[in-house]
Amino acid sequence: MDIAGFTPELLPYFGQAAYFQLGMFENLALAIAIAPDLTAKEALSVAAGRALAKHQGLVAEIRRRGGEPSEVMAPFAPHLDAFREQTAGADWNELLLSCYLAGGLLDDFFIRLSDGLPGDVGPRVAHLLGQDAGTEVLVTHLKAAIGAAPALGSHLALWGRRLVGDTLLVARSALPMEGITAAESRIEPVFTELIAAHTRRMDGLGLTA
Amino acid sequence: MDIAGFTPELLPYFGQAAYFQLGMFENLALAIAIAPDLTAKEALSVAAGRALAKHQGLVAEIRRRGGEPSEVMAPFAPHLDAFREQTAGADWNELLLSCYLAGGLLDDFFIRLSDGLPGDVGPRVAHLLGQDAGTEVLVTHLKAAIGAAPALGSHLALWGRRLVGDTLLVARSALPMEGITAAESRIEPVFTELIAAHTRRMDGLGLTA
């Protein structure tokens, strides 16, 4: 099922998805830089590598169509940079939760949106973005931290609620306004699904969404 | 020709080389974070991916031998963290030069040291570490910056001279002291070669080594 019969324009789709993955990579690299121990650093480096591989796969799709990646990504930089700044968090736990929740939701979203891409592009992109993000380490660390300090759970639950709002705005911004208005009733269920998957991620951490 | 008949112990060799590549990756990720434009960011992400791939290849060698990567790397963390701090530089240009010069010299060094590893391990590691580091983008940016501001050239030449000293100390620390003393006269030519390659990198940038 494609997203309400919505066909994203190819290069802007790739540009936004590629810049998002680059930002994910940068956030994970920041998490590596402030990791409390070498085991965490090492495990996070796997997740950073996965985000980078997704970014590079999307960049390859841009180049394949004669696009210059930096030019194709540029229109999305101000909005996504602001998003990263808002969601980077004040510490290690908030940053990990951001990487896990925003990364999970927007991977889901761009996979969903890829259904509307022409020919074999959609399945290829869905395969690329659907690969294991290597973020199980984030879950392990967050669960341990929440288990050790229950007050952290309610703090991170609030943080998670704020994150999902900001993240859904990024997803909405990938859809042209007229498309949203015309197809609002058909797009709504897609967002409902994205939120349901988000809630499962929160539940998995023992957080109330 | 192996390095003065010196056989490095396998796990410590991999631990130090793996942690060094992780630090290279972290430096390149920092360079991405402060990159002045999207084109630079994008090109640096390729170099960061290469350093990460080398790190992960070395980590795989540690795992293959039943080692726990974080434990095997841990003894080298304090020294290499201090090295990174000393050589991170005060700005974008200094950081790029560090990545290029220290990365180049220590890639050369660990490749050279791999000659003494048993069986097919040496050639496999040399192949891994000898892969294109994707650092041509660093050269391009540094040459452009030096071309635009000749005073920067003498500033960076000084920085390069400081870097090579610190970097050679890291290389020396990979050799046990008794090995160095016993084989000093045979190891010296290897360091001479490393310095010659460093000088070629400096020359390529138009800097006096």
Q: H/E series of chain A, N to C?
A: HHHHHHHHH
Look up the CATH topology of chain A: Ferritin
Q: Could you name the CATH homologous superfamily of chain A?
A: Ferritin, core subunit, four-helix bundle
Count of DSSP H/I helices of chain A: 9
Secondary structure layout plus pairing:
Two copies of one chain form a homodimer.
Chain A: H1 10-33, H2 38-64, H3 69-73, H4 77-87, H5 92-114, H6 121-130, H7 136-148, H8 150-173, H9 177-204
Helix pairs in contact in A: 1-2, 1-4, 1-5, 4-8, 5-6, 5-7, 5-8, 5-9, 7-8, 8-9
Organism (chains A, B): Cryobacterium sandaracinum
Protein name (chains A, B): Ferritin-like domain-containing protein
Domain Ferritin-like (chains A, B): 13-170
Your description of this structure?
- The structure is a homodimer.
- Chain A is mainly alpha-helical and about 210 residues long.
- Chain A has a single domain (about 10-205), classed as Ferritin, core subunit, four-helix bundle (Ferritin, Up-down Bundle), CATH 1.20.1260.10.
- Chain A contains nine helices and no strands.
- In chain A, helix 5 (about 90-115) runs antiparallel to helix 6, helix 5 (about 90-115) packs antiparallel against helix 7 (about 135-150) and helix 5 (about 90-115) crosses helix 9.
- The longest helix of chain A is centred in the last third of the chain and has 28 residues, at about 175-205.
- The radius of gyration of chain A is 17 Å and the shape is globular.
- The model of chain A has no long low-confidence stretch (mean pLDDT about 90).
- Chains A and B meet through helix 1, helix 2 and helix 3 of A and helix 1, helix 2 and helix 3 of B.
- Chains A, B: This is Ferritin-like domain-containing protein.
- Chains A, B: It comes from Cryobacterium sandaracinum.
